[in-house]
Design goal:
binds uridine-5'-diphosphate; Rossmann fold; 11 helices; 18% strand; 335 residues; binds nicotinamide-adenine-dinucleotide; alpha/beta
Amino acid sequence: MKILVTGGTGYIGSHTCVELIESGYEVVIIDNLSNSKIEVVERIKEITGKDVKFYEGDCIDKSFLIKIFSKEKIDAVIHFAGFKAVGESVSNPLKYYRNNLDSTITLLEVMNEFNCKKLVFSSSATVYGKPKSLPIKETFPLSTTNPYGTTKLIIEGILRDLYNSDNNWSIAILRYFNPIGAHKSGLIGENPNDIPNNLMPYIVKVASKELECLNIFGNDYNTKDGTGVRDYIHVVDLAKGHIKAIEKILNENGIDAYNLGTGNGYSVLEIVNAFQKVNNVKVNYKIVERRKGDIDACYADPSYAKEKLGFKTKYGIEDMCIDAYNFAKKFKEDN
Ligand code: NAD
Ligand code: UDP
């Protein structure tokens, strides 16, 4: 079975390629390297000891996609390619609508032409907007608070329309909660070029003394200690969720959405404390104003993914903190 992975050199894509290869799938990656590095391909080969095909190019480029589909007999696609920075999507929405929507529509057109109708799509818990209650179930109403989230919601709608027009499609929409951590080898992980927006990469840079102090955005939320609560999921667990989703779409037609989270909510302070303890390192922090658009708490009800996909997470918060820091230290040594 040959799986095309768009955005396969990115953070979640690279971990998923490793899991796919280790589960016996052949993998073809396409990525335009707008937010990742070519070295990741060698890292995937090093971890798995297996070959992986890589094509540099853009999912918006139809002739490029046609070339790949003509050359490779693709059985299914996992579509990670897209931009993901919430703040940037607010200041530059057209960049997000152009890239995320155009790449997906072009990919779907080419898949249709080549009669390849099996797709796993990367959506996000952001499509639940401000949830009415917790934990979040897949059946909750959907809404968004930023253009990035809106691209995900629009694509979910496009995929449902596509399935309604042709029931031969088989589509799994995966709504990720907060992926953190890295592969145990320390060879692949999350490596933002700029100052990170997300909590864990920021903590890692403060612990490594590349940044001075973590700003904790508010301690007056309606949560256990006043800081924001999220459902952090180890990226390797998340990657394994894609194997379950691939098995599902290869075996039956249909369209469905699944939460990929642990079901546990951790506050910012809990994460900082766990990180300091397991890595024996200091993380300086101060409490600052709330970040605009943030919600108090967000965590999944993971029972539907467990029931329908057989998906269960294995790693806890300690592993996530150890593996994130291990990757950062190894990356620094190697560069
Ligand atoms: P990432 O930026 O590390 O990976 C995305 C990859 O896609 C990058 O390697 C980038 O170079 C590539 N890319 C972007 N546009 C492209 C295009 N037009 N053609 C070809 N390649 C292109 O991001 P990630 O964290 O691995 O996220 C993967 C997917 O999961 C994204 O769709 C993202 O929106 C979604 N997601 C991520 C998170 C998260 O917290 N990381 C949460 C929910 C959903
Ligand atoms: N957060 C923080 N300081 C940072 C980055 C994030 O206090 O520098 C908080 C943020 O307010 C939220 C949690 O950490 O409560 C997770 O934020 P992240 O941006 O990683 O994920 P998201 O908000 O998209 O769920």
